[in-house]
Every structure is written in structure tokens, then in C-alpha cells.
Amino acid sequence: MRILVVEDDQTLNRQLVEALNGAGYVVDKAMDGEEGHFLGDTEPYDAVVLDVGLPLMDGISVLERWRRDGRTMPVLILTARDRWSDKVAGIDAGADDYVTKPFHVEEVLARLRALIRRAAGHASSEIHCGPLRLDTRAARVTLDGTALKLTSHEYRLLDYLMHHQDQIVSRTELIEHLYDQDFDRDSNTIEVFVGRLRKKLGGAELIETVRGQGYRMHDGGTGG
User: Fold this and answer.
1) Which of 47, 83, 117, 214 has the most Cβ atoms closer than 10 angstroms to its Cβ?
2) What angle do CA 152, 6, 167 make, to 5 degrees?
3) Which domains does the chain carry?
4) Which sign does the torsion angle of CA 27, 28, 31, 33 carry?
5) Response regulatory domain location, by residue (predicted)?
6) DSSP per residue over the chain, as a string?
7) Rounded to an integer, what distance in angstroms lies between the CA atom of residue 142 and that of residue 169?
8) Would you give the distance in Å from CA 59 to the centre of its chain?
9) pLDDT digits 0-9 by tens, 2-58
10) pLDDT at 124
11) Helix 105-119 with 10-22: angle, nearest 10 deg
């Protein structure tokens, strides 16, 4: 999953990026509203952490422009404790949730997990696909009750496919949502990790290749 952090406080920005990276997300960052708006307008994100009080363009204006231009990614806004009006303005502008400063980073992570799940149509923190279980809170995957040992790249790929199961996900979409802007998009990394995941899933043929289109994760796939 790919997250955008737009926060002008350097220390807080770094803390959020480090925590999100540690939780397995790919993170882009911006230090002002104009850069944040540009990234959100041109790159695909699974969620955005957006500060309200930004230089060059305030967070509410950034959010209003995104929504006006049809950008639908979940947005979590950061507001000051004594500015209840920012919360109201943010929700009215199209924010999906908010966190009040100062906050615990764990709360931001929990709210982002919930926003990403809901955007994909999942209400529970545990996502199922046949015998496979993904616990988004613990970042833990089990197959028939047995924990699977996955690398960070394998987990990110499986996490995205599980959130979008029964949908055809193209290789390009996977690259855009699992890697940063500097990733070599001509590499065969996705194919390699899909192959590794299939081996670890054994006889559970859950990842189907839809020739010429991409991959689809569903219970009872035929493989490919």
C-alpha cells in the first residue's frame, strides 16, 4: 500500500514516514500544500495523511481541489487540538477521518488501516480468502491456521491482492501501489514475488493469472 504524508513540521513528517515504513507501507512525503496537491493529483495513493496548516496552500484547499478533480483516495487530516472548526471544515471538504495533535503514531496507523479496509469494502481487520487469513493489525498471514513467513515485499503484494480480491489487478497497478517513484517499472519483480507467494501457498490456488490483464486473487482460482 502506498501512502502520501503532507506535513510541514520536519520532525513530525519524519516520524510519520518512519512509522509507516515500519508498518510495511511505501511512503511519499511533501512539506507544503502545493507539492502535496501535485503528488496527490498525479500519483495513485491508497491513503493520504494531510495536515491542515500547510504553507503555500492550506490542507483544506488541497483536499477541496482533489475532491473537485475526482480524487477519491481516503484522506486522514491532522488538526490542532483547539481548532474544532478545522475538523468541521475538513470533513465538509471531503476528509474521511481526522486525528488531533498531539497524537500517538499508533492511532494514525490504526485509522489508516481502517480507512484502507473500508475503501476496499472490508469492515473487519481480518480479511479472508478461502483458507488464507490476513490480520491487518498484526500484519500476520495464516494458511489453514498455520502462520506463513513472508518477506516485506511478499507481504505488501499479498496485502494489496487480498484487499482487492475478486478484482483483476494489473501489473502496472501493483507497481504503482507497492513501490516508490524510483522503482524500475520494466523489471520483472512482480512476477518473481507472485511466483514466490504461489509456492508458499502450496496447493491453495488463490492467485490467478488473467492473461494480458494481470492477477486476480479469489477462492478457487485456477492458477496460471
Assistant:
1) 47
2) 50
3) 2-119 (3.40.50.2300), 126-217 (1.10.10.10)
4) negative
5) 2-116
6) -EEEEE-S-HHHHHHHHHHHHHTT-EEEEESSHHHHHHHHHHS--SEEEEESS-SSS-HHHHHHHHHHTT----EEEEEETT-HHHHHHHHHHT-SEEEEES--HHHHHHHHHHHHHHHTT--SSEEEETTEEEETTTTEEEETTEEP---HHHHHHHHHHHHTTTSEE-HHHHHHHHS-TTS-TTS-HHHHHHHHHHHHHTT---EEEETTTEEEE-TT----
7) 22
8) 20
9) 999 999 999 999 999 999 999 989 999 999 999 999 999 999 999 999 999 999 999
10) 86
11) 60
Q: Are 178 and 156 in contact (CB under 8 A)?
A: yes
Return d(Cα 126, Cα 123) in angstroms, integer. 9
Cell of 123: 469492515
pTM: 0.85
Amino acid at 99: V
